[in-house]
From TrEMBL:
Protein name, entry field: DUF4255 domain-containing protein
Organism domain of life: Bacteria
Species lineage: Bacteria, Bacillati, Actinomycetota, Actinomycetes, Kitasatosporales
Region (Disordered) residue spans: 188-225
InterPro entries on file: Pvc16_N
A UniProt-annotated Pfam family: Pvc16_N
Ranges of compositional bias, category Low complexity: 207-225
Domain Pvc16 N-terminal: 4-181
C-alpha cells in the first residue's frame, strides 16, 4: 500500500505546475550524503512517519459483490494509516527552492480527495477515496526540528504532506449463495397427526409478490409444529 501511495505522489508532484520541467522527485532520506550526491534540481518527498488513524477504525464486515451485484465474499473493513511526508526542494538558490515549493503547493492544494480511479493496484481495488492534506497543522509527536536533527542536516523550508490511506484487512471469506426459496412450514393438529392444510412457504422479501388490494376474510389460525 505504501509503495502505491509513493507512485501516486510522484505522478501528482511531477505533473501539474511542474509538468515538463524535468524536476526529479526523490523518496530518499535527505541526509547530508544524499544532498552532496545530488546534481540536479530535486523535489524530495521523505516518508518520516506512519501511524494508524484510529478514528477511522470500523467493526463488522464489508460485502464483496460480483458483476451481477451479488455478494460473493465478505471481508473486514480496511485499517486507515496516516503517511506523513516531508516535502523539500533542492536547488542552488533559495529563491528557486521557494518557486518549486510554490509549484508543489499549487499542484496539491486542489487535490484534497483522490478518487479510486486514480489509485493503482490494491489501493484502487478497494474502491475508496483517499484524503490528502498539505501544509496543515503539524500533529505528529516529533517536531520538524527533531526530524532534521535525526537526518543530520540543517533545517530547510518544507511542506508537511499527509496521505490517509486504507490498508486492506485479511482474511476474506466466501459468502453463502443468495436466498431463492423461503422457509417451509408444515402444520399438524393438536394430537400430532398431519393437517389437511397444504405446506406453506414463506417467500423472501425480495422475491415476494406485491400484496393484493382489498380485504377478505381472515385465514384460520393453525398451530405450527
Amino acid at each position: 500500500m505504501i509503495h502505491e501511495v509513493d507512485e501516486v505522489l510522484k505522478g501528482l508532484i511531477g505533473g501539474g505546475a511542474l509538468a515538463g520541467s524535468g524536476i526529479d522527485v526523490s523518496f530518499e532520506a535527505p541526509t547530508r550524503d544524499w544532498a552532496a550526491r545530488r546534481n540536479a534540481p530535486t523535489i524530495n518527498t521523505y516518508l518520516y512517519d506512519i501511524r494508524e488513524d484510529v478514528s477511522r477504525r470500523q467493526r463488522g464486515h464489508m460485502p464483496v459483490r460480483d458483476e451481477r451485484d451479488i455478494v460473493v465474499r465478505r471481508r473486514q473493513p480496511p485499517r486507515w494509516f496516516r503517511l506523513s511526508y516531508l516535502v523539500t526542494a533542492w536547488t542552488k538558490q533559495p529563491q528557486d527552492e521557494h518557486r518549486l515549493l510554490s509549484a508543489v503547493l499549487a499542484t496539491l492544494l486542489p487535490r484534497e480527495l483522490l478518487p479510486p480511479d486514480e489509485l493503482p493496484g490494491a489501493l484502487g481495488a478497494l474502491g475508496l477515496s483517499v484524503p490528502l492534506t498539505v501544509a496543515g497543522l503539524h500533529t505528529e509527536s516529533r517536531s520538524l526540528a527533531e526530524i532534521w536533527s535525526a537526518l543530520g542536516g540543517e533545517l530547510k523550508p518544507s511542506l508537511d504532506l499527509v496521505v490517509t490511506a486504507p490498508f486492506p484487512a485479511f482474511p476474506e471469506y466466501d459468502a453463502g449463495p443468495p436466498v431463492t426459496e423461503g422457509a417451509a412450514v408444515r402444520v399438524r393438529t393438536m394430537d400430532g397427526t398431519p393437517s389437511d392444510s397444504p405446506e406453506r412457504r414463506h417467500r423472501p422479501r425480495h422475491l415476494a409478490p406485491a400484496p393484493a388490494t382489498g380485504s377478505g376474510p381472515a385465514a384460520p389460525v393453525e398451530r405450527a409444529e
